[in-house]
Design brief:
The protein is mostly helical and about 150 residues long. The protein contains four helices and no strands.
Length: about 150
């Protein structure tokens, strides 16, 4: 929604033509803004040995930057490298906290990567097998957030 709101403002107030490109995630958006031809292809992003010479994607509205320092560093080698221009005002933190026991059990048993969001697709796998049931939480130990 943020991208579309910004697009409306950029187009209506500033008069620029706006188009939208949808990519799968943060790393793909880095590569897209950098100008890589196939940012969604993890084995060949289409950046070329010298990096892209032109980019047609100019703005990425939201990035979960903290988890992908290597991908960000890779794009910074390019002449078309994306630049961080600041925060929109709502900083967040991202991470999942699982013990290595559960991560390793799921991966060894069925190649299920619980440390990546696609590992929770219940159409193909059963990720719930590696977690306690909600009833295991002692509700008397919970406190309200406010």
């Amino acid at each position: 929604a943020t991208s579309y709101m910004a697009g409306i403002l950029i187009q209506d107030l500033l008069g620029f033509n706006v188009t939208y490109t949808v990519v799968a995630g943060t790393v793909e958006s880095y590569m897209s803004v950098a100008g890589c031809a196939t940012p969604g292809n993890a084995t060949d992003r289409g950046c070329g040995p010298e990096g892209p010479s032109v980019t047609y994607q100019h703005v990425q509205m939201e990035s979960w930057h903290g988890s992908y320092p290597a991908a960000w560093a890779e794009t910074q080698k390019f002449a078309t490298a994306p630049k961080l221009l600041g925060s929109m005002g709502y900083d967040g933190y991202e991470d999942m906290y699982f013990s290595s026991r559960e991560l390793e059990a799921a991966y060894e048993a069925e190649g299920l990567a619980l440390d990546f969001w696609t590992g929770f697709d219940s159409t193909w796998k059963e990720p719930w097998k590696y977690f306690d049931q909600p009833s295991a939480v002692n509700r008397s130990e919970l406190k309200p957030c406010s």
